[in-house]
Design goal:
Blueprint lengths: L4 H12 L2 H24 L3 H20 L3 H28 L2 H22 L41 E4 L2 E4 L8
Antiparallel strand pairs: 1-2
Helix pairs in contact: 2-3, 2-5, 3-4, 4-5
Length: about 180
């Protein structure tokens, strides 16, 4: 079977990224899926909006499930509260097919994405703990939200044909959960 080069690149990116880089990738995916859902609402494509909201919600659940409140303290607690709020706003946007709650989530994650990208570049310190290359890791037991090495189980909200590769939605064949 011929491997899709784009998918091979995405898989390689996920498998070689640091935990902080993986958080940034998840943020990027969440923003992308939420923007697609907003566009689908504007186009009155209810099914596409629903599917993209589910994917964004699954990313938030992944982020919540790997926060380490003990190691991350107040910062991790605040992130957990924010993630919970964003999840509820995404559910609201999905159920009511309204763009405003989703646009709010996109704005919040865009702001946070810059901070995570700065951390991934090693330009800032954090009270969360140290990971690869001195980069802070707010995950429990050294796990990252993506690189758990769980062998490829399905994720909540993953579309048909999607699988979890090391904890991140990735596709079999030519479909990509990140595209």
């Amino acid at each position: 079977m011929m491997t899709n080069p784009y998918q091979a690149y995405r898989t390689s990116t996920v498998e070689t990224a640091s935990p902080v880089e993986l958080v940034a990738l998840l943020y990027q995916g969440l923003i992308r899926f939420t923007q697609r859902a907003i566009y689908a609402i504007e186009q009155r494509d209810i099914q596409k909006a629903h599917d993209n909201f589910l994917r964004a919600q699954a990313i938030v659940v992944e982020l919540i499930s790997y926060l380490d409140v003990e190691a991350g303290g107040e910062v991790a607690q605040n992130l957990g509260t924010l993630y919970d709020y964003c999840y509820r706003r995404l559910v609201e946007a999905n159920c009511q097919k309204q763009a405003a709650p989703a646009e709010e989530v996109v704005g919040l994650f865009r702001e946070l994405l810059g901070a995570w990208q700065t951390l991934a570049e090693g330009k800032a310190a954090s009270p969360l703990g140290e990971g690869r290359g001195g980069v802070p890791v707010p995950m429990r037991n050294g796990d990252s939200p993506v690189a758990r090495g769980d062998g490829g189980s399905r994720a909540a909200g993953a579309a048909d044909g999607d699988t979890i590769v090391g904890g991140a939605a990735a596709a079999r064949g030519s479909r990509s959960a990140w595209s």
